[in-house]
Amino acid sequence: MPKQLKILLISKQYPPAMGGGGAHSFYLADALARHPDVQIHVLTSSAKNMPPEEKIRDKNLFIHRIDFGHSMALPYEPAIQKGLQLCKDICPHLLHAQHTGGSLIGLHLKASFHLPLLVTLHKTPIKWDKKIVERAPLYSYMKLLSQLNIIDLFIAGSQAFRRELQKIGVPEERIRFIYHGVPIRTLERLAYGRKKVLSVVQKLRLERNDNLIVCPARIDDRKQLDVFIKAAGLLRKELPDKTFKFLITGSTKTKAEVDYKNHLESTSRSSGVRDCLRFDTFDFEEIPALYRLAKACVLPSSREGLGLVLLESLAVKTPVVVSKGMGVTEVVKTDERHGLFFLDGDHVDLKRQLVRIFTNKELVSRLRKTGHNRVKKHFDADMMANNYLKVYKEMIQ
Length: 397
Description:
Elements lengths: L4 E6 L9 H13 L5 E8 L7 E3 L5 E6 L10 H14 L3 E5 H15 L3 E4 L11 H4 L1 H11 L5 E4 L2 H10 L6 E3 L6 H8 L2 H11 L5 E6 L9 H14 L4 E6 L6 H17 L5 E3 L7 H7 L2 E4 L8 H8 L4 E4 L16 E3 L4 H13 L1 H18 L2 H16 L1
Parallel strand pairs: 1-2, 1-5, 2-4, 5-6, 6-7, 7-8, 9-10, 9-12, 10-11, 12-13, 13-14
Antiparallel strand pairs: 3-4
């Protein structure tokens, strides 16, 4: 075993870019880098106003940013070239690729340097049928590569993902289960940081009596955001004495996302909440303060790998209201104890659960305490990092 274990973590997403995969990579890298016998190098995509090379102060953590675009000849060619150079310069002991983009880059590096390759997937196809190979050929590719021993191990960040990997056809002996985790103490500190709180308050123009409800989700029809908006309209009518602000934190990049946002804006007008609904994004370090200022965090999608945003919300003691679907039931294990469930796709039931947040102080107090305790016990980033270290060491022995 080397005196200092060197890991090359490959992740297209990384702060300041938002997304569950990027947040997971950040939390993992940060927790691992606190171990004196571990050195972490993150290969990630370029970001505005961020340096191409960065050494994180007082940590064995190095960030390498490069264009993750494609050339005519090869997907992710600039990132692959950068990865090849990093492998020459730093001589990592292991490659850890995040999701499909990172996996493709990792495969090139593994082929050139014969390094162990670990893959963490962050989403799988929403519909499984005989045409899955046509619609999502990469998953069949992953299956083939795992069976040919090209990808050494897969990490499942939830039991739901473990089942999905098995559906893809990944052999059980190539799967390791480690829950995703969040840095609870760091999130708590950021949640109460005066500058971050003030920034969120000013951005949303929050007044003292405003009741903020956050839906932290991509602008994607799979997230069922229209359910959230329709429930918001009913909630406003049922509690007319309260002033509400509803927030969806996703942004739009593709035409499909723009079209879906237009649909959501139309839904908000017909639901009577266009004047109090915001679509906005926030800096990575503002998110904990945003959740703490909210009365509730809502996740209406029927399918999540785990729901990292739920962990972030519960870490700062904000109640969560979720659709009882895949993945999230591992976070909200018990209804009315760790969070509130509503029937999948049922905006009336979502409204009913939100009313309880505003009319039952005893329930809210219990949700804050027990939800937070569940995250501390099962989803702490340091625990996650320690479990990853065990897998890393297993792979290089």
